[in-house]
Specification:
Two copies of one chain form a homodimer. Chain A has helices at residues 4-29, 50-57, 81-90, 123-134, 150-162, 180-193, 236-239, 250-269, 301-316, 382-395, and strands spanning 71-75, 95-99, 139-143, 172-175, 197-202, 208-214, 228-230, 277-281, 289-292, 338-339, 363-365. Chain A is α/β, with parallel strands linked by helices. Chain A is globular and about 90 Å long. Chains A, B: Pfam families: ThiF.
């Protein structure tokens, strides 16, 4: 009934249709813009860097192109880490190294970045795919593992030492993890290598967060002092219930990622004031900031060694005055009826029984130790001993 | 040479391949998760709302599900508006109305949300496609037009009056536009309708921004007082050069969007303190906040009418004490070497020659009027007149 000619025609039709279908698929999946060799300041719609290069004309950044010479490692590609990686990608960072062992789940969809069709993929794989599409000029290296196991930690150390551009160390490590162990692993690695890093965190009740700059030997490391968080005026008992899953909000995580990457840009490109610690209390829109020196009694030996080296370096250099004043925000009367609204939360440090530092209002320690009932005292000096106990307890959490 | 049987076989192969190819395409393009009838608090990986519903268990929000009953209009779907829309979508807002007349360009790729393959599409169309994929439970209505033209303004008024869920007015309008005219159009519409709205803005040098809550009759509207911005300690002359394209950063815009949507969530769901005005100075990580009362001499007649109605309502209700204290952040010495870092920028209000309000340090007026050389005085009271002149001048900018 059908002639050979008709069959051949049908085959040609089908072949054409198949080519078109595959082309369409390829367009959608791989619609990469061409790579750009040199960042241009030209003000045309087709230039993805025009609004960033404008920072030079505005007098904010002296040499924006320098961003291409930097590599940053992001550990933890969740609610904060993924947005952090996206911001750095859009800013045209030279290289990003991503570390995470988790998979994308629908339960992550209340935060920015990942999309429902990525559920089931590893976070680093899904992130790399999206980020490469956004900016093919950035180099990516991803590791789908938990940095806290012995083997992975060794590999992690190797990559942050040699995974930067041209085999150099990375310029900065960003901790965007959600647990104490991973933070301590990063802290240990950075103390050993003398690697500057920034830490970030969001509270389990989703309404506070913070960022912190850690320069080994110079500022307090994660083992120097109890990790600090912003008090959110929330009943601790409600928060610490066993088996309760943490709450999260795209707003809080977006703000923390934004403040973190802003600090990274200021640090790498040399503009504005880099924050040592900046907290965010969403309930009251309160943003405490401060700086914390390294603790000479830190129980991390590498931290103590870095402190010695920092002291030597400081002694060799001519002394510079450090400005540490704080101006008050003044409450003024005026004919326009402008009024300042209370923005400072109550400090809740009363429960802490360990050697808790005096902190600015609104900042709290992340962990407190229970009252020592019946624990026998050592011969070691009281204050030092309880600090070490505190750190040991925290490590076991 | 080829038998009919062989040709038939080839056709079957091609048909199968084509089906597979189209299926793959469809999966990638329309991998929508099924709609969810009722928000569940169940802690499983497949529940996109588990981390939001956890806000109830954490004691932050009493009735999170209520978010589904609200509709929000976002005017301007650029660097701030697109992220704002994405955050609200991921939070599960009931309905979003998006207004923008712009197209996606590669020059937008230094901000979050849009991707290079969307270049050339209208912003509202591209945004709706992405947002529907992220959360099919949200209802969307998009308008690809400029709200400041007469016809469009009438249509805009109609949609914010009847475009909410079940034909009700929208619950909130968010201004995420980048120009004075559009802000004034929203202000005019909201004053006439008594519609609460929030305004947002980012400076042309990309390093400061703000959000502001405007409740007609209660707080200052956009015509009551010169729009306020956070001073960024930047040379104004560098900034105001003609023909210079504005700089922008994904960080600043992400932070402003995060603070804006956080304020929306607090306002709609009733938790924390809703901010009237919150500024962000990225150079110093300084966040001034304040509140501003409506101006009885506002030249917007609808604003004055709303003020009268507000006064009547207030008089009818039993009086409540308003807390307007501000606690100081205290600088404390301590054994841990914690130091507060200066976070307040210098006020730069000296250049302003008009009747500029006394503002907290770090906040500035967005527009100042040149010194009145040779302008003849009117018989109208001096202060009122110059205010009106200021507003008239601003409208002409």
């Amino acid at each position: 009934m059908t002639t050979v000619e008709e069959l051949r025609l049908r085959i040609r039709e089908l072949e054409n249709e198949l080519i078109k279908s595959k082309q369409k698929q390829s367009d959608a999946e791989h619609h990469l813009r061409p790579k750009i060799d040199k960042m241009s300041a030209e003000v045309v719609d087709s230039n993805p860097y025009s609004r960033l290069m404008a920072l030079k004309r505005m007098g904010i950044v002296q040499d924006y192109e320098r961003i291409r010479s930097y590599s940053v490692a992001v550990v933890g590609v969740g609610g904060v880490g993924s947005v952090t990686a996206e911001m750095l990608t859009r800013c045209g960072i030279g290289k990003l190294l991503l570390f995470d062992y988790d998979k994308v789940e629908l339960a992550n969809m209340n935060r920015l970045f990942f999309q429902p069709h990525q559920a089931g993929l590893s976070k680093v794989q899904a992130a790399e795919h999206t980020l490469r599409n956004i900016n093919p000029d950035v180099a990516f290296e991803t590791h789908n593992y938990n940095i806290t196991t012995m083997d992975n930690f060794t590999h992690f150390m190797e990559r942050i030492s040699h995974g930067g551009l041209e085999g150099k160390p990375v310029d900065l490590i960003l901790s965007c993890v959600d647990n104490f162990e991973a933070r301590m692993a990063i802290n240990t690695a950075c103390n050993e290598l003398g690697q500057t890093w920034m830490e970030s965190g969001v509270s389990e009740n989703a309404v506070s967060g913070h960022i912190q700059l850690i320069i080994p030997g110079e500022t307090a490391c994660f083992a120097c002092a109890p990790p600090l968080v912003v008090a959110a005026n929330i009943d601790e008992k409600t928060l610490k219930k066993d088996g309760v899953c943490a709450a999260s909000l795209p707003t809080t995580m977006g703000v923390v990622a934004g403040l973190l990457v802003q600090n990274v840009l200021k640090y790498l490109l040399g503009f504005g004031t880099v924050s040592y610690y900046l907290g965010y209390n969403a309930m009251q829109d309160f943003f405490p900031s401060m700086a914390m020196k390294a603790n000479p009694q830190c129980d991390n030996a590498h931290c103590r060694r870095q402190q010695e080296e920092y002291k030597k370096k400081e002694a060799e250099q001519p002394k510079q005055e450090v400005v540490e004043e704080e101006e008050e925000v003044v409450h003024e009367d005026n004919e326009w009826g402008i009024e300042l609204v209370s923005e400072v939360s109550e400090a809740e440090l009363q429960d802490a029984s360990g050697p808790v530092p005096d902190l600015p209002e609104g900042i709290n320690v992340a962990y407190t130790i229970p009252k020592k009932d019946g624990v026998s005292g050592d011969t070691v000096e009281e204050t030092e001993q309880s600090l070490e106990e505190l750190m040991a307890q925290m490590k076991n959490m």
